[in-house]
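Handout, section B. The chain below has 306 residues.
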Amino acid sequence: MVRRLAGEHGVDISEVEGTGAGGRVTKGDMEGHIARLGAARTATTEAPPAMEPEQVPARERAPVYEGDRVVGLTSIRRAIANRMSESKREIPHAWTMVEADVTGLVALRERLKGEFAGREGVKLTYLPFVVGAVAESLREHPVMNSVWDGDGIVLRKRVNIGIAVDREEGLVVPVIHDADGLNTLGLARRIDDAVRRAREGRLSPEDVSGGTFTVNNPGALGSVVSVPIINHPQVAILSAEAIVRRPVVVDDAIAIRSMMNLEVSFDHRVTDGGPVLRFLNAVKRRLEGLGPDGGAPGSPREAGAG
């Protein structure tokens, strides 16, 4: 019987462990061995074939045609790709936008920029005003200055604002630590120094660590609308767009005003559209309150500003 079963199923009896007297293979041993072989064949049939390490799915590779040029990834570009992929994979992004009338801010900067450059040796851009307005608004809306922790939300005490700097090698985000303790002059000095060292490749690990919120400035390159990706593991990122002069309705009359779009991408696990818009409108209110005779955002302290 044992030999007949072995012949019918193509089994080598020497491969079967016998439990009978003297190690003989019994009918039960053979039937058990045949059943295990059948289960193994079924599992192999149902499981997808293992992918060899060098195999890459076709969708991962772009076809290369005659005349195309393949540029290898730099370490910076690969790091950016990994971070952005992680952010989109881990964070449920949502997005909202408001527009701010910054006509007063434009006039204020126009009046101050010559004197500022001559006295301080620093070009006065719109970014210090935006960062100052963001820093003050984060103190009012601490959930925007937080981190998702899986089992809870960590509200950061310090307001450390990263600023996205565009370089030929790739984007880098130096951090302005304790930005809420600086006024416009202090912010302008810190930002100018950080941007210059970023473009010269002289940032230290401390310069790019500890950020609690990020401000992107695509408006410097002419962008009017963008949807930024959150700088993981932060909760949100704000984009300040280009200032555009266009007709708007003011007190039932049409006037030419300087308008800026402000967008925020946020982590929908941590917060919702209502709190985000209250924060965004706080930033808008501060920027719209600036003018030739008005103040500038930020504490009167100039920590580290001299």
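Note. Residues 298-306 have pLDDT under 50 and may be disordered. Compare this with the example in section A.
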